[in-house]
Amino acid sequence: MILSKRGASLIAPAASIGVFILLWGIISLNVSAEFLPSPLAVVKEALRLLHANIGGTSLWGHIGWSLRRVLIAFFLAILLGLPLGLYMGWNRVCEKIVSPIFEVLRPIPPIAWIPIAILWLGVAEGSKIFICFVGAFVIMILNAYTGMRYVDPLLIDAAKSFGANRTQQFFNVAVPACMPSIFAGVQNALSMAWMCVLAAEMVGARQGVGFIIIQGMDLNKPAMILVGMVLIGIIGSLLAATLRQAEKLLCPWRRELV
Amino acid sequence: MRFGNKEEYVSGREIKVSVNNLTKCYDDLLVLNDINFDIYKGEMLCIVGPTGCGKTTFLNCLSRFIPITEGSILVDGAPADPRVHNIAFVFQEVSAIPWLTVEDNIRFGLRIKRLPEEEIERRVERMLDIVGLRKYRTYFPQQLSASMEQRVVIARNFAINPDLLLMDEPYGQLDVKLRYYLEDELMRIWKELGSTVAFITHNIEEAVYLAERILILSPKPCTIREEVIVDLPRPRRYDDPEFVRIRDYVTERIKWW
User: What would the pLDDT profile of A42-92 be if each residue is shown by its tens digit?
Assistant: First the structure.
């Protein structure tokens, strides 16, 4: 039987995940369930958790809490980081003022902000959103800024030769030219926010996917920990896939690139 | 030795662009030295000179990308300004805008100039026909060949009905076959629209093929060494003895050693 190209593109990832689960199963047979639960045990645990409450909140509730924090932080990061980054790349004065501060703050990992975030914003939602925001914001600025610095000067000159003023050069040429870079930034910012939310939730949260992992550890249930981890992986890749679709819609000229 | 007759050539033509005492220095480096010439309305002017003689600086002054040190450039009697005059620029590298389709690329300059929407559509339709890209109007530049892409740029520039179209070795990076093809294409569009074109090249054959008048530049600091009027009938033939004579003459004059 000859596989169609489309069929092959679906079968390959399914096969690789299948082999991965198979290996996991084989290894788990040879070690104690405390050390590595089998895939089946994890699925059973996931099904159990679907109908049970974990710390007073359902599984979907936990996912909802995490997503809510991530999305608020993510949109705030775009709202503030994108214009700031673009303007830093566009305007020399703005670059000179902002970039020294930014260069010092940039290498501080978002997790390092946890204590100070709790001190400022308390253990409630504010500090968790803040930590996700820090992670996403830095990436957003960086990508918008780099994108702007690498805009082809030829295109700006072409616009100038038509008599475009600075505003027209910015909105008609520079910003669309940065779109691919902005989109890479948006995708990375979202994954970063998603990674940060788990770190934030592992410190003093009562809801969220990170809490499931901590709860699993406290209750000494390795299967529960793994359910949390698998959930993180699945949701993270779904978020990334959604953004990739959005990029295809918003940057149609890049569709032919692959 | 002179070709053609300047008085005869000038009579009946009005001056479109007038360059007076144009001088450009980068710090101490004198690049353009006191250049004076006129470009006539509807003229096809070729500017040739050795590599590195300041051709591009010269064009950048004309398009006002860089400030001039001394002198003036007047278009219809007023100082040249891209916001007032329609000065179009075809660069050496292809500058089609990658995120716009062929038709939107042609609209680009018209939109910047804020022309009425129906006028924009009228001109886009006309240019699509003139450069023969109607079938490809919804394609992105990346889906086109290099010569089609350069045609998009040419259409985008001709669409604004330029007072002056500046072309900086636009075919420098294309192979001979494409160059011949696009040269003929340029001649056709130029005749059809009656635009004023200043075409910079280091290819003498190309200059003699296209030009009504050739300005020969000297090496740095750049001055105008001579002007040659090419009054050969069109279409011109590369092997026509007259053509060869003019080509050899220009080649001889351009030598700076």
Answer: 999 999 988 888 888 888 999 999 999 999 999 999 999 999 999 999 998
Nearest chain A residue to B63 by CA distance is A161
Instruction: Suggest the residue from B84, B95, B105 to mutate for an interface test with chain A (most A CBs closer than 10 A).
Output: B95
Q: Domain residues for A171?
A: 66-206
The answer to whether A253 contacts chain B (CB < 8 Å) is yes
In 3D, which of B65, B56, B67, B53 has the Cα closest to residue B22?
Answer: B67
In-domain check, residue A255:
no
Domains of chain B by range and CATH? Answer: 6-86+162-254 (3.40.50.300), 98-161 (no CATH)
pLDDT tier at B63, thresholds 50, 70, 90: confident
pTM equals 0.79
Q: Which of A157, A163, A177 sits opposite B113 (nearest CB)?
A: A163
Mutate to test the interface with A, among B57, B97, B103, B153 (most CBs of A within 10 A): B97
Say yes or no for a CB contact (<8 Å) between A251 and B99: yes
What ipTM is given for this predicted complex? 0.77
Cβ B141 vs Cβ B97: under 8 Å: yes
Q: CA-based diameter of chain A, in Å?
A: 74
Count of A-B CB contacts under 8 Å: 63
DSSP secondary structure string for all residues of B58-88: HHHHHTTSS--SEEEEEETTEE--TTTS-EE
In a domain, A187, yes or no: yes
B63 and A161 within 8 Å at the Cβ level: the answer is yes
Structure tokens at A219: 């209750």
Question: Per residue in A176-204, pLDDT tens?
Answer: 999 888 998 999 999 999 999 888 888 77
What whole-number distance in Å separates Cα of residue A135 and Cα of residue A19? Answer: 34
CATH number at residue A201: 1.10.3720.10
Q: DSSP class of residue B222?
A: B
Tell me which residue of B180, B189, B154 sits closest to B168, measured CA to CA. Answer: B154
Q: Please name the residue of chain A whose CA is at the shortest distance from the CA of residue B140.
A: A253
Would you call A252 an interface residue with chain B, using a CB distance cutoff of 8 Å? yes
User: What is the number of structural domains in chain A?
Assistant: 1
The answer on pLDDT for A256 being more than 60 is no
- Please count the residues of chain B: 257
pLDDT at B107 over 90: yes
> Packing angle between helix A114-121 and helix A175-201, nearest 10 degrees?
80
Is A180 in CB contact (< 8 Å) with chain B? Answer: no
- Contact residues, B window 172-201, toward A, CB-based 8 Å cutoff: none
Lowest-pLDDT range of A100-104, B35-39, B79-83, B193-197:
B79-83
Q: CB A162 to CB B113 under 8 A?
A: yes
